[in-house]
Amino acid sequence: MAVNGSGSRRRFAFAAALLSCLPLSPLSALADEAQDYPKKPVSLVVPYPAGGVADQFARSMASELGKRLGQSVIVENRPGANGNIGSALVAKQAADGYTLLLGSTSTLAVNPHLYKNMGYDPVKDLQPITLTHQMPNVLIVNTGTPYHSVADVVAAAKKAPGQIAFGSAGNGNSMHLAGVLFQKQAGIELMHVPYQGAPPALTDVMGGAIPMMFINLPAIVGYQKSDKIRILAVTDTKRANSAPGVPTFSEEGVDGVVSRVWNGLLVRQGTPGAIVKKLNTEIVAILTDPAFRKTLEAQGYEVLSSSPQEFSDLLNKDLKAMGELIEAANIKLD
């Protein structure tokens, strides 16, 4: 017995020594990779122009995330093709967690039904991290127009079908779809004027080049007392806390005009799970911080947070729903 026990101890010691010479297991390697991440600055790609609502949120997030990661988070604006150019850029990056994307309902759930070749597949090429925020759209008009209510717009459009213009950030954008929904529910026909982003469209509304547009609420919270624009209604089921004086479309006599756009952060599909988890943990900590939320909510954002799976589930759900809406409304690119 003693001989057998001694032999067993020798075999165990030999096996332990042999194992110590082997490479780390995949799980250990992943854990070390997440612990060391990030070793260099991280890019946050915003697929829209600088100065817009998406850009404003991204810069607030980048500042806070950089503090938590211990590395700079640099915002890169890559606008074009209704968000497709910037999104495709992230989809082609290395799956290492160093390039993040601020995605939205438009780029992830709407565009696949409008573009034959976007340059990326939102499900196959991108990995959700967390939802970040959502916001409704609002209908604004130039103060020089005779439109003081939604009813005024409806009455004028019925007298001149297809002749009154409304702007948006681009074909297929949530602002465009809000306008399509408004026309459908009100039984009117307007003329859509797409822009390369919301800022130039807003400039033209304020200057009187076009009479009205749909735009994300945070973009015009600061203009509530402006002598350039008038805010007629919000595309939500309730009034916004940041704009309590703006009625809903339902209050204005047009039911069913509800248009909220969600946003979230993603990385290249295939990014190690440990890095995705670390990013989710750090970003959710920022999103649930009362000080961070307070500033953004005052600007019209509804701050959200989620697990990667919850974000993925919503994306797949809305990808299907948006496809059905676009097909039913026969929405096509101009």
What does this structure look like?
- This protein is α/β, with parallel strands linked by helices and 334 residues long.
- The protein folds into 2 domains: 42-134 and 260-329, D-Maltodextrin-Binding Protein, domain 2 (3-Layer(aba) Sandwich), CATH 3.40.190; 136-252, Periplasmic binding protein-like II (D-Maltodextrin-Binding Protein, domain 2), CATH 3.40.190.10.
- The chain has helices spanning 2-20, 26-36, 53-69, 84-91, 105-110, 150-159, 174-186, 198-207, 273-287, 290-298, 308-329; strands at 42-46, 73-77, 99-104, 126-142, 165-168, 191-194, 212-216, 229-234, 260-268, 302-303.
- The strands form 2 sheets. Strands 1, 2, 3, 4, 7, 8, 9 and 10 form an 8-stranded mixed β-sheet that branches.
- Strand 5 (165-168), helix 7 (174-186) and strand 6 form a beta-alpha-beta unit.
- The longest helix is centred in the C-terminal third of the chain and has 22 residues, at 308-329.
- The protein is globular and about 65 Å long.
- The model has no long low-confidence stretch (mean pLDDT 90).
